Amino acid sequence: MGNGTSIGRVRGLGSAHAGVKHWWHQRLTAGSNLLLVTWLVVSLFRLPLWNYKALVLWLSSPWASVPLILAVISVFYHLRLGLQVVIEDYQHDFTRVIAIVLLNFYAIGGAALAIYAILKVAFQGAIA
Amino acid sequence: MARNSQRPLSPHLTIWKWGPHMLVSILHRATGTALAIGGGVLLVWWLVALAGGEASYARFVDLMTSDSTGRLNWLPTLVMVGLTWSFLQHLCSGVRHLLLDTGAGYELKINKAGAVATLAVSILLTLLIWVPIFYRGAL
Asked: Could you say which residues from 44 to 63 on chain B have a Cβ atom under 8 Å away from some Cβ of chain A?
């Protein structure tokens, strides 16, 4: 492994100096997941889940839609960090790059879809 | 990474006697992956179905629970039970990891007890959630 030598850096070996941030954000989002997803699970148990109108009414309140958006951001960021570690353990070279790109598409695309859907329901519910 | 196949490898998974801590460790990764893909897709699907209006949400609910004849869709039910246990196992195991990060709980007996506890709590809570749902026929 390149240990900080010039040629090592050119070849992309050695530390990328992003490991501590990754490690810390994984724990940080673990904490925010703990709060936000527990809130979501408790909320879902208190709601009539099969009832469309009740769910729209629930999401029309900022006290439901905003924590749900935060939960989506926290969960998708956490899963992006987590799956990155899994990919880096089992995939090497070219397939690793492809897998990481696909993971980023999934994490950002999934979160964007979820947030758009939450906002659409929230704003519709406020009008209705 | 180039590897010389003539060189010996360090002792790996197959050589160690399995213990609860090893099971919980790999389950953290397995349940995390299941939640990231299965749970993530299902969460987005649920929200998009809800955003699509009343008819689109009704189709989602029918698919996830019982069809119009009242027959239970067993595959989505199995997925939901599996994701419930995965979530609880990942949650308990994650809290255990946060405690281990502080440097606590590495003594052999405490470490083993902690690993077994995550399994016991996740299985117990999964039963507490799903047995009443099946009992009341709420799906």
From this structure: 44, 47-48, 50-51, 54, 57-58, 61
Interval B74-89: pLDDT, tens:
999 999 999 999 999 9
> What amino acid occupies position A4?
G
Read off the tokens for A25: 């954000």
| A3: closest CA of chain B, how far (Å) | 16
Q: How far is CA B125 from CA A119, B40, B92, in A?
A: 32, 21, 11
Number of H helices, E strands in chain B: 5, 0
**A16: DSSP letter:** -
Nearest CB neighbour to B48, from listed A31, A72, A117: A117
The amino acid occupying position A3 is N
Closest CA of chain B from A106, distance in Å:
9
Q: Are A81 and A25 in contact (CB under 8 A)?
A: yes
Task: Tell me which chain A residues have a C-beta less than 8 angstroms from the C-beta of B48.
Answer: 113-114, 117
Looking at the structure, give the CATH architecture of the domain made up of residues A13-127.
Up-down Bundle (1.20)
pTM metric for this prediction: 0.89
Place of tokens 């599996």: B82
Cβ neighbors of A13 (< 8 A, separation 6 or more) are A1, A2
Distance from CA of A33 to the nearest CA of B (A): 9
Sorted by where each begins, the domain ranges of chain A are 13-127
Residues near B30 by Cβ (< 8 Å), separated by ≥ 6?
Answer: none
ipTM score of complex = 0.88
Sketch out chain B's domains with CATH numbers. Answer: 21-136 (1.20.1300.10)
